[in-house]
Write a structure and sequence with these properties.
By secondary structure, the chain is an alpha/beta fold. The protein has 2 domains: 135 residues, 3-Layer(bba) Sandwich (FAD/NAD(P)-binding domain); 175 residues, FAD/NAD(P)-binding domain. 28% of the residues lie in helices and 28% in strands. The chain contains 8 helices and 29 strands. The strands form 9 sheets. A 6-stranded mixed sheet has the order 5-2-1-9-23-22, covered by helices on one side. It has a 5-stranded parallel sheet with strand order 11-18-12-13-14. α1 runs parallel beside α6. The N and C termini lie far apart (49 Å). The chain binds flavin-adenine dinucleotide (FAD). The site of flavin-adenine dinucleotide (FAD) has 33 residues, from α1, α2 and α6.
């Protein structure tokens, strides 16, 4: 064996690539700072205290083929021309590379009292919200959640916290602030209005076209508005997870690497990107960040690395869009196969079924399948 393939990130894309490469003639090395894999779509429910955390994660090593060498380190820099990467100050050389490091919260430079701003992109951040929101509810007579960002993560988290407060017997104000002219711009008007009516009924106030400008650790300012003694969460989007990439790459506004149809980088035929790290264009649009695409992109990129190792031609990635759901705790909006609109419990059930189907072991699958059947009971599951 004379080649070394490095995979950065052992999430949905990275793990599928490891599996696709397991019989290839190459040494496989996987870098990931996190020793557990996490079902990210269920994080809002975990943060609200509705799920036990054991349902969401599983040891990464147990899911890797035996011939994968796992190094528990974060990659801080990639040099595409020198064919090296840096992790924990150490330099590693690669022959082939797959970049599948997912994405992290983008604060867009907002760093006022960052240690007191809650965000949601990992198991740790969800557990922190769960614990701190519980404590905030105990000591606050009139709780108020202010959410910067009216995308799906912001809305899902806002609703999860709202219902948690309700089960604790507290009436909780929720304010969503977003600089865009409207929330969820990718939705057709009728579906957006459906969600807005649901939010209004629930008592969630949305300020579109408004940007959070200040946070002093307790109070939030957005232009001339001031919200006092709030639980402040940031869900203003996500960005590429590796701090530095040197080389001739093209990127989207959110930092994703533009890829060819076979998922290789345009100037580097043996360097690939998949999942949230990749910007794959299909029918004139960049694919959204989703588990389904990450899963099959990872598989395709892994196979293409194997093809290259054998001197064969790589194959194009052909995405299949099974659909999406925005789960809002007691309601939902979604679309199946780009055709069929769904809402309410149907969407919620499909969402939790997907969390089980794409999970890592039978116990986790069974837990989510049970949830898909019963949905949430009135009592939250606060195991903090
Ligand atoms: C709150 C939330 C809700 C979501 N809801 C949905 C949903 O309902 N449906 C849906 O389809 N998708 C949803 N998504 C998006 C979906 O989770 C992602 O698209 C998917 O996880 C991308 O897979 P990936 O393999 O690219 O990245 P990930 O699954 O994020 O895996 C990336 C891996 O790389 C590792 N890593 C990060 N930085 C480094 C580094 N510097 N060096 C080495 N390793 C690194 C991470 O530890 C992680 O293990 C949601 C995401 C979030 C955050």
């Amino acid at each position: 064996m004379n080649s070394k393939t490095i995979i950065i990130g052992g999430g949905f894309a990275g793990r599928q690539a490891c599996r696709a490469l397991r019989n290839a003639h190459t040494e496989i090395v996987l870098f990931d700072p996190c020793s557990s894999v996490v079902m990210l779509p269920a994080l809002p429910d975990l943060a609200g205290g509705w799920l036990a955390e054991k349902l969401l994660y599983y040891p990464l090593k147990k899911l890797l083929p035996a011939n994968v060498r796992y190094i528990q380190k974060a990659v801080s820099s990639i040099d595409l021309d020198a064919r090296t990467l840096t992790a924990d100050g150490e330099l590693f050389a690669f022959g082939n590379l797959l970049i599948a490091a997912g994405s992290v919260t983008d604060f867009h430079g907002f760093d006022q009292h960052r240690e007191k701003v809650y965000h949601l992109d990992s198991l740790e951040t969800a557990l922190r919200i769960r614990a701190d929101f519980g404590a905030y509810l105990l000591k606050t007579e009139q709780p108020h959640v202010v959410m910067a960002g009216g995308g799906y993560t912001g809305l899902e988290l806002a609703l999860s916290l709202y219902y948690r407060a309700q089960t604790a017997g507290k009436s909780c104000r929720v304010t969503v602030v977003d600089p865009a002219p409207d929330i969820l711009p990718f939705l057709p008007e009728a579906k957006r209005q459906y969600i807005k009516r649901f939010l209004a009924r629930t008592g969630v106030t949305v300020f579109s076209g408004l940007r959070v400008t200040g946070f002093d650790g307790k109070n939030v300012t957005a232009a001339e508005k001031k919200f006092e003694n709030v639980f402040f969460c940031w869900a203003g989007g996500s960005t590429f997870a590796v701090p530095e990439v040197k080389g001739a790459v093209k990127r989207t506004r959110d930092g994703r690497l533009k890829v060819n149809s076979d998922l290789s980088l345009p100037e580097y035929p043996d360097i690939f990107a998949a999942g949230d790290a990749a910007a794959f264009e299909h029918n004139g649009q960049i694919l959204r960040k989703a588990i389904n695409f990450a899963w099959y992109e990872g598989k395709c990129a892994g196979k293409n690395i194997a093809h290259r190792l054998c001197g064969e031609k790589t194959k194009p990635f052909r995405p299949f869009d099974a659909g999406w759901v925005i789960p809002l705790h007691t309601d939902s909006v979604g679309q199946l196969f780009s055709l069929l609109w769904i809402k309410g419990n149907t969407g919620l059930r499909l969402h939790y079924f997907m969390c089980g189907f794409r999970n890592y072991c039978f116990t986790n699958f069974a837990g989510f399948a049970r949830l898909a059947a019963k949905l949430f009971k009135k009592e939250a599951h606060h195991d903090d």
